Amino acid sequence: MDAVQQRIDAMVKGHRVMLFMKGSAQFPMCGFSGRAVQILKACGVQDLQTFNVLDDAEVRQGIKDYANWPTIPQLYIKGEFVGGSDIMMVMYESGELQQLLNG
């Protein structure tokens, strides 16, 4: 595992809810990232940690390799990859995301 992958791994495993996104929770820089933040807020997440991939090109590419997932945002809960905003929306609408967050 190279240094970038180690940094990503530490972030993913170091926070209960970790969102790699474009922008910040306060100022999302794309619609998909904004939707991901809104879904998590609707679930009542208080301990959301975010990483702005626009600030770090190595992490922006590295996170795609880490999860073998080509798009951003990417949500991790308890160290496990959940998915992007479309998957988050489906899980939210079914109640599965709330169960994962509260379990």
Description:
- The chain is an alpha+beta fold and 103 residues long.
- A four-stranded mixed sheet has the order 2-1-3-4, sandwiched between helices.
- Helix content is 50%, strand content 17%.
- The chain has one domain (3-102): Glutaredoxin (3-Layer(aba) Sandwich), CATH 3.40.30.10.
- The mean pLDDT is 97.
- It comes from Inhella inkyongensis.
- Keywords: 2Fe-2S, Iron, Iron-sulfur, Metal-binding, Redox-active center.
- GO terms for molecular function: 2 iron, 2 sulfur cluster binding; disulfide oxidoreductase activity; metal ion binding.
Concise description?
This protein has 103 residues and is α+β, with helices and mostly antiparallel strands. Helices cover 50% and strands 17% of the residues.
Question: What descriptors fit this protein?
Answer:
single chain, 103 residues, alpha+beta, Glutaredoxin, 4-stranded mixed sheet, 5 helices, 4 strands, 17% strand, globular, Thioredoxin-like_sf, metal ion binding, 2 iron, 2 sulfur cluster binding
